[in-house]
Amino acid sequence: MDRQENRCHLQEKGCGGCPLLSIPYEEQIHMKQKEMKKLMGNFGKVRPVIGMEYPWQYRNKAVSTFAEGPGRELISGIYARGTHYVLPVHTCLLHHPRLDEAVRAVRKAARLCKYRPYDEDRKTGLLRHVLVRHSLLTDEVLIVLVTASPFLPGAKTFVKRVREFCPKVGTIVQNINNRSTSAVLGFSEKILYGKGYIVDELCGIRFRIAASSFYQINPVQTEILYRTAIEAAGLNGTQTVLDAYCGVGTIGLAAAAYAKSVLGVEKNGSAIRCAIQNTRDNRIHNAHFLNEDATKAIRKIVARGERVDVVFLDPPRTGSTPVFLDAVSRMNPEKLIYISCNPKTQKRDLEFLKKKGWRVQMIQPVDLFPHTEHTECIVVVSR
Ligand SMILES: C[S@@+](CC[C@H](N)C(=O)[O-])C[C@H]1O[C@@H](n2cnc3c(N)ncnc32)[C@H](O)[C@@H]1O
């Protein structure tokens, strides 16, 4: 690995995005292995962490926050560690280069349109953040411009300029966030240009990704994650599958070819609309999706006396709920495949399942987030 790549001027200025950057990647993997063994070792053998061949430029998503520069010019970047001061970011070692190109285009167009950054204290100005997503399949970029109020003066000129400066921009969405919050996105949005989503491919399946849908940020490692999880499920075409916390349907739709049927459950409405459309676009006839809280959905399934053979669950960082785990346990599937980006809450949930008589069969960490302290982990559980 090129040693030069381990140097970043942003880190010296206080960027907290890559806390492990100064450590060689092989050593990072070694540290993550030790960490996972310490955390999960009581459940059984922890397989070697699957690292990334080229652990750079892997991110398909970036968020840049607007602020005022020293000469009152519009700048954008990330908050310096532990502060509310925005560090200007022009390039990042972890971003796909198209993301930086798109953010530069937005900044340049916004300056030409004389847009001002939103000031949280004074409640003045317009622009809060820009979120960009890139598709490795089409090389297209989705731009989400987050504004504090709905009116975007000269929106047509803004769109024209952004497309001139970055021709790979496939769609531009305006998201309105007028709340006092650290959350990036607000609840309402309008499409300024294009279809409002981009299409990417994982495991041979095409996925629509809308502005507010969850989508894994490292597509190369995500393919490895999903293939490993689906293989570990041991599907042979006869099993019924539940994909809980399914996002745009990625795991369930990738597993559908090996299952009798798939039911996906997700509480984000726009993600579930994408999931339904993704089944149609990929001509998958044995998958269905439900827009509901996963805990409520599983309780209803169990109350109806129904059961599924295999459960994939991939909850948010907070993990699942005792009610969900209890209901799944009572439903008694052959296998649970628990995928998590937060092994601490995963461990808590596994301890709950252990008390109900479940046993861990496989622990497979996958490094989805090189140069950061985070690790994704697949755990297979059965009775
Ligand atoms: C870590 S993501 C996994 C998504 C998907 N499996 C994937 O790999 O792209 C967690 C998902 O759970 C959804 N979610 C969060 N809380 C939920 C709940 N209580 N019920 C159902 N879905 C929920 C989020 O919207 C998000 O899409």
From TrEMBL:
Cite the EC number. 2.1.1.190
Q: Tell me the organism's taxonomic lineage.
A: Bacteria, Bacillati, Bacillota, Clostridia, Lachnospirales
Domain of life where this protein originates: Bacteria
Q: Which GO terms describe its molecular function?
A: rRNA (uridine-C5-)-methyltransferase activity
Gene Ontology biological process terms in this record = rRNA base methylation
Q: What organism is this sequence from?
A: Sellimonas intestinalis
Name the catalytic site residues.
341
What CDD domains is this protein classified in?
Answer: AdoMet_MTases
Q: Which family does it belong to?
A: Belongs to the class I-like SAM-binding methyltransferase superfamily. RNA M5U methyltransferase family.
| Alphabetical UniProt keywords | Methyltransferase, S-adenosyl-L-methionine, Transferase
Which enzyme class? transferase
Q: Where is the signal peptide?
A: none
| Matching Pfam families | tRNA_U5-meth_tr (PF05958)
* Positions bound to S-adenosyl-L-methionine: 216, 245, 266, 314
Which InterPro entries would you find in this protein's record? MeTrfase_TrmA_AS, MeTrfase_TrmA_CS, SAM-dependent_MTases_sf, U5_MeTrfase_fam
Q: In its UniProt entry, what is this protein called? A: 23S rRNA (Uracil(1939)-C(5))-methyltransferase RlmD
